[in-house]
């Protein structure tokens, strides 16, 4: 019996496994196994909405044992080693042999980005997002009157979206209780010369302008060297004190990936050929954040889904002796959410912002949810949020490009 293993249940792994299951249900001599250290598929782009208490965590998770047919083995286990010679995964629940393997374990927070990075918070899992939500809820409801100070390290998509969500949450608290909250400050720090450096300059300009409009102090071209005792040391000697520090300055491959012997880039990501096979290895594919692909594409859910399905299709072709095909990313628009009332959208080379972009972002992600009742729950959450904000239309929109603030 041929044994196919998919490692990881993020966007890439989940959709690869679903594609394989649909194709293999009628085959009795092939065993499909999904290995994950999470018991649910998590719609990770919306973790920031969970951390800010905008969404319920149960509305963005799908239990794996409910998502797959009984013929697919789902093993909840943590990988400790990848034995390439023995063609097996070594996990905390035993060994998992494979004939074909799709690697989609994602990446881990880069704790080497600066000294003390492991002390910062990161809303990159349901558990961590809920922990941040609870801390913020306690601060907003019972916090003392000292200034609320926040610092976010990293202004890629993750950093910008969390910064905007946090600023929106603070604005909502202040709107509901204008006399209660003490002064607050949010600082966003990015080592590169602009925020959203992996996106178009127009998207970067929109994000910078709107974050500034929300009161965020945006620092670009500044690298964090150290975090110690609630204080960030920058490369120019400046020190920034903050009571809440979030690290979203980069991801790297898991330690067991680094030890595996697979070809890696400087961040521990697996190098793959254009057909998504690991370079130099037969019957092993890598997709999602763990893969360093030859094709140029952003790192988002849209790419991970497409790559996961393509790897599954190439594996199926490999299984029956057909030729594999190179991966080609189909750009369906670039979205970045900017808090609870705005978003930026780059479509066909043209950037848009505002509530129309926000609505397109929400509808797009609603359509991507795996199950119909989750789509309904998500829409109900956002409709309820809209109904609870009668001041929506009264909130000032983002400044048009090039318009000075004092002329508004």
Automatic annotation (TrEMBL):
Pfam families from the entry?
Pyr_redox_2 (PF07992)
Q: Which residues form the signal peptide?
A: none
Keywords (A to Z) from UniProt: FAD, Flavoprotein, Oxidoreductase
Q: Which residues form the FAD/NAD(P)-binding domain?
A: 3-308
Lineage, top ranks: Bacteria, Deltaproteobacteria, Bradymonadales, Lujinxingiaceae, Lujinxingia
Which GO MF terms are attached to this record?
Answer: NAD(P)H dehydrogenase (quinone) activity
- Superkingdom, taxonomy of origin: Bacteria
Q: What is this protein called?
A: FAD/NAD(P)-binding domain-containing protein
Q: Which cofactor does it need?
A: FAD
Q: Does the keyword Repeat apply?
A: no
Q: What family is it from?
A: Belongs to the NADH dehydrogenase family.
Give the InterPro entries listed for this entry. FAD/NAD-bd_sf, FAD/NAD-binding_dom, NADH-Q_oxidoreductase
List the PANTHER family hit by this protein, alphabetically. 64 KDA MITOCHONDRIAL NADH DEHYDROGENASE (EUROFUNG), APOPTOSIS-INDUCING FACTOR 1
Q: Name one GO biological process term.
A: aerobic electron transport chain
Q: Which organism is it from?
A: Lujinxingia litoralis
